[in-house]
Amino acid sequence: RLHATDVTSSSFRLLWPKLLSQETGxxxxxxxxxxxxxxxxxxxxxxxxxxxVLSDLAPETTYEVALIPESNVHYFPPQTTxxxxxxxxxxxxxxxxxxxxxxxxxxxxxxxxxxVVSYQVLYGPLxxxxxxxxxxxxxxxxxxxxxxxxxxTYLVTVTAIYRSGKEKSLSAKACTQxxxxx
Length: 182
Description:
- The protein has about 180 residues and is mainly beta.
- The protein contains no helices and 14 strands.
- Helix content is about 0%, strand content about 50%.
- β10 (about 115-125) and β11 form a beta hairpin.
- The protein is rod-shaped.
- It is found in: Secreted, Extracellular space.
């Protein structure tokens, strides 16, 4: 059965059983948005292949896909499937700073998206250009930033890094508390 994996907003991978070999033929692959079949695209694929990535697709669109084995030995019926691409990646829509102390604060963000591999939290004092980076696993939506200077304003930027390789960022300002006066 023809089916799709690794679906993103602009691509997916098609997998199919090994019906042909290099010697016995090739595949014709046809795909088009289900709502606009006139925009059909066609691709020829060697009989040795059992997978192919289709890219440059529109987000949140259902595609009709047909794989036609062109065999000079047997007749194989076309394999068809429907694949819907994901919504376009959206940037973090809010960055919240909380639990601010003299030397640390807590950063959290939303929404958490399945299409995010990891987040990068960049932070540095304002004004200034010394920036540090924290890598956070894509399953998490918060982190603690430590070893900061008291009574300082920091610019915090959260960058979502998507499976597709795209990046989207959102920034917020954070102020640390005054330190304990000795």
